[in-house]
Amino acid sequence: MDYDPMVMDDAEALGPVVKISQADSVRVKYELSNSDIAFANSLRRVMLAEIPTIAIDLVEIEENSSVLADEFIAHRLGLIPLNAEGVENLLYARECDCDGCCEHCSVKLMLHAKCTGDENMHVFARDLVPVGERVNQVLGTPVFSDAEGLGPLILKLRPGQEVKLECIAKKGIAKEHAKWAPSAAIGFEYDPHNKLRHIDLWYETDAKAEWPPSEYASWEEPPQEGEPFDYDAVPNRFYFNVESAGSLPPDTIVSEGIKVLQQKLAGLIHELAEGEGDGMNGDYNGPRSPEYGTGADGFGGYTTPFGNGGNQSSWGGAGGTTPYGTTPYGAGQSNWS
Amino acid sequence: MNAPDRFELFVLAEGEKKITEKVVSGMSNCSDFILLKEDHTLGNLLSAYLKMAPHVMMAAYKIGHPNVPEVLLRVQTDGSITPREALVTVCKQLVAMYGQLGREFQKELALRQYADQGEHAGGAGGAPGGGPSGQNGF
């Protein structure tokens, strides 16, 4: 072995470490340490763009005498955050057997508002009402994060004006359209003292005096006066600030992001192992299984892609072709733990 | 009019395989892996961790065109393992690492919520933003 085994052994022995500095219903701030920039950045990218949520995708307008154009309203409706709890039980419309959309792959919402008074009327997301069968009772309901519980303002109506429309909300990911993004923003920073010189700060006379210190500056040692530049240094502490747009709570965004990324990797392993025959796959499950065992039952609520039958497809898509497709993971676990 | 569907960025077309291996004939123990409908998320992650892996001499990835969701990942090993084995090992290691991250995160979150409850005991419990808070037990 002509490489430095320390790099990997360290990571294996300790693995990523998380420290949460703030967690509430809109954001979670945490530090990810003992990690690698590629590892952290992949998680950030997945949380931004690849977590499935639900958003209005089709709007059928029956009546619109407001001042706003139909497509303008349709666009505004698409951007309204809808509760995505339980979206994993919803099918993608393109994968559903139905013709167009049905209750297994969509949620229908109605909006009917007419200004009958003599004052202008405000139409809020609250006026969007889910109708028909749903996967569960909350999926697809508009999210209200204001004190009055009105939700975002969709449009205003003058006396006599009316809108009547029907919306179809579908499951999707933000890679297709940003309306499906679960996160409003993800703060990602490392090296608050710029010791690694990854950024080149603009300044009038003195960068140090003109730039405010980072929120995390006190978390890391400031550079010593006259300290030589370390050419071998790599970033290993990352500060995340995951802010939810409302459709999913921020901690769920993190755990879902991890799950999506694991499923991506698991898909690759599955395809690569397929060509090799069962030898690879068997080899895999032997030594690794204890980790998955703890993953599935180590803590409540969160499941890894290997946790239960619902996610088994990422491994056992081919069904009975591997020995593991035929044995449910749940049964196997009892042997390992 | 002729714009492709946006989901073609991440949904495999009929008959496409997620990953295919092409042995590079000009180099020893070297393979190209073509990942369809993937991007820098996996490309950078895998190449970075392959570089750290034992027996891997070289690993690199490219995305030929930003509009084309295809990743080319080239891996050369020292001959004691095949590039495919190296890649599978790295993938498994990463799955385990992310699994551990998830567990660490949940553990820390539970601690954090416990601490927050202690601090705000008896205070106005409801965080601003009634909407999502309900789902989560905050």
Description:
- Chain B: This is DNA-directed RNA polymerase RBP11-like dimerisation domain-containing protein.
- Chain B: Belongs to the archaeal Rpo11/eukaryotic RPB11/RPC19 RNA polymerase subunit family.
- Chain B: One of its GO terms (molecular function) is DNA-directed RNA polymerase activity.
- The complex is a heterodimer of chains A (337) and B (138).
- Chain A has 337 residues and is α+β, with helices and mostly antiparallel strands.
- Chain A folds into 2 domains: 5-50 and 184-212 and 234-336, 2-Layer Sandwich (Gyrase A, domain 2), CATH 3.30.1360; 54-180, Beta Complex (RNA Polymerase Alpha Subunit, Chain A, domain 2).
- Chain A is built from 9 helices and 10 strands.
- Chain A has helices at 5-14, 37-49, 70-78, 207-210, 250-276, 278-297, 313-316, 323-326, 329-336; strands at residues 17-23, 27-33, 53-64, 106-114, 121-124, 129-131, 153-157, 162-172, 183-190, 237-244.
- Chain A has a 4-stranded antiparallel beta sheet with strand order 1-2-10-9.
- In chain A, a hairpin with a 3-residue loop joins β1 and β2.
- In chain A, α2 packs across α5 (250-276) and α5 packs antiparallel against α6.
- Chain A is globular.
- Chain A starts with a helix and ends with a helix.
- With 138 residues, chain B is an alpha+beta fold.
- Chain B has one domain (6-119): 2-Layer Sandwich (Gyrase A, domain 2), CATH 3.30.1360.10.
- Chain B is built from 3 helices and 4 strands; from the N terminus they run ββαββαα.
- A 4-stranded antiparallel beta sheet of chain B has the order 1-2-4-3, with helices on one face.
- The N and C termini of chain B lie far apart (47 Å).
- At the A-B interface, α1, β1, β2, α2 and α5 of A face α1, α2 and α3 of B.
